[in-house]
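Record 1 of the preview.
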Amino acid sequence: MAGNTNLAYRRLCRRFGAELTTTEMVSSKALAHGDGKSLKYLEKGKEEFPVAAQVFGMEPEVLAKAVPKIEEQGFHIVDLNIGCPVPKITGCGGGSALLKNPQLAGDCVRAMCQSTSLPITVKIRAGWDDDNKNAPTFAQEMEEAGASAITVHGRTREQKYKGRSDLNLISQVVKSVSVPVLGNGDVLDLESAKRMFESTGCAGIAIGRGALGRPWIFRDIKAWLNGDPAPSPLSTDERAQLLLELGKGILQLFGENRGMKIMRRLAPDFFKGTQGAPGLRGRCNSLETWSDLEDLAGSFAPSPLRAAHS
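->
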């Protein structure tokens, strides 16, 4: 989710009912050394509550120095990522590489807990590979170290994003600890959210890729949980308006040049399952200006409401 969970996208998800939002993953080492670029990733909205800052690292003393800097920024939760499968993270011993060293992971969580009054949560995977699916016992280690909640992605590190999220394993984690467990992986719509809840008994769901281009997924799930009627599907015009709303927020955060480069990656998801999607996705690669984005939205929908560029 790196590059996707910026403040503008989080605001869009909040509007549709996301109850907890999380920043992009930030290096604990960079934070500990006061790196300005990393602090920029921790920009939060005044209306965001609760919001978690997500960090990665594998040195307890460094994480202990980073966490107070996060607390100073006004965050409510610090989330340690032990789920990222990307080689540049695992190659340094961080992310899901920590699944192979539960003792060190526990030391990291303990050091973080001792350096702040904020809740420390942990995101993990099923295990490193199919022969080492240690999530249930690993989760117990995290609870003993002081983690307040645990998110479990039901794939192994070696799977990355292939195959299926193992709901049975998530259920095992739920039964192995007393802290809240959030299920993660393959929640792309209301039906898959129902399967996650009903098959695992999890306390909540962490949604990542399922919200890309479909921030209304939170609205649909909340309506079901509350016993409310299913909301009407969004019209093409409404989806085009959301694309422009996101683009406006991205430009305010990053400026037009960098902002449009970011939108080249974010915009294609809004066209999934719609008529003419391949051609529209192709046009995303050439986004340069706000006008380009307006023209793209206009091609997507007959009469989208244009967001003012200010």
